[in-house]
Design a protein that fits this description.
The chain is α/β, with parallel strands linked by helices and 166 residues long. The chain has one domain: Glutaredoxin, CATH 3.40.30. Strands 2-1-5-4-3-6-7 form a seven-stranded mixed β-sheet. Helix 4 links the parallel strand 3 and strand 4.
Length: 166
């Protein structure tokens, strides 16, 4: 009986650790190279640090993702409702041309970067545990994660996080 109880306690401990929501990015994720529309590389940390003092909504998307494109009108509504927020689009398109055409075709306003390894490889996507896109993350003015995982642009948690003051 004791052995079964011990195994159950250990199992619950490991499961609860896996569901913990991080408040900051790992060093590996921060050091991931991302590329701008002008093909300039930066680390993810450099991009985040550039916007210290402002809230950031990160939209992980791809030009081939139907759910991502379906959520874009809501993202554009959020941009109108929260003009002070930085909208940071991280594309997991492996085809750079498709990504750039998608930004232009869908008239996406904001900061645009590409993760050229796609959504299956790389320290940032591994940290985010990106198994589905779109994915929305909200950072506060200090760069801390206040919303880690929303998969629908209409999720009320996004609005709550954007309204939250530090």
């Amino acid at each position: 009986m004791f052995k079964k109880l011990s195994i159950l306690v250990l199992l619950l401990f490991f499961v609860s650790c896996n569901f913990e929501t991080p408040t900051e990015f790992s060093e590996k994720a921060l050091n991931e190279k991302i590329f701008s529309l002008n093909d300039v590389s930066s680390t993810f940390k450099e991009v985040i640090d550039e916007h210290k003092g402002k809230k950031i909504l990160i939209d992980v998307w791809a030009s081939w993702c139907r759910d991502c494109l379906a959520g874009m009108p809501k993202v554009k509504e959020l941009q109108k409702e929260f003009p002070e927020v930085v909208f940071l689009f991280l594309s997991v398109d492996e085809r750079i041309g498709s990504w750039k055409r998608g930004v232009k075709k869908y008239n996406l306003k904001g900061e645009h970067f590409n993760l050229p390894k796609g959504m299956k490889d790389g320290d940032l996507v591994n940290f985010l545990n990106v198994s589905w896109i779109p994915r929305y993350i909200v950072l506060d003015e200090n760069g801390e994660i206040i919303l880690f995982k929303a998969t629908n642009a209409s999720d009320n948690d996004i609005i709550t996080a954007l309204k939250k003051s530090i």
